[in-house]
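Re: export button greyed out
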Amino acid sequence: AQRVTQPEKLLSVFKGAPVELKCNYSYSGSPELFWYVQYSRQRLQLLLRHISRESIKGFTADLNKGETSFHLKKPFAQEEDSAMYYCALSGWGESNYQLIWGAGTKLIIKP
Amino acid sequence: DTGVSQNPRHKITKRGQNVTFRCDPISEHNRLYWYRQTLGQGPEFLTYFQNEAQLEKSRLLSDRFSAERPKGSFSTLEIQRTEQGDSAMYLCASTDTSSYNEQFFGPGTRLTVL
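Workaround output, generated via the alternate export path:
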């Protein structure tokens, strides 16, 4: 079954501390993995995707096919990082690019 | 073009009534998606259009739900005989090949069925 699991509903860390938001997936083919973010009162927006291998706002994520994980990391959290974070996947090369979503993790950065 | 827009932003209706939502995608995007999101959950796929063709519909989608995308531009999602369980945020997203599968989301329509 195709599934994305984000085990933490809530993650609270102090400003300046490292952050890791966990994402595990189950998919039979070759997945494309994404992290989307939703700041307060804003719409969902793409944060980063595994194929681009870039760092956005200091966040990085590495696809680990052996562990079927795509954890989001940032070495030093900032207050403006507080938001809902969703991990999602789509089937690479599939025609519809339907996204399968995790339940989301609410990240709170304490001052 | 300032992005994907959705109307109305909020809709309160009584059980049994029909409701219709509209989505205007980014103008050059040929793919359009509808998702539903309930509290504490991620978005759930409902249906997908490529241009005017509805190519996929979730098996979870009741036949009370219907979507159209005439002329391949805006899309409407209609829910007939609404039930309290239909209360959710309905999200629309659009993309095309030049966006490399990045889906751009609208602000959503929040439906409350009393």
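Chain A touches chain B through 22 residues (CB under 8 Å). The button fix ships in the next patch.
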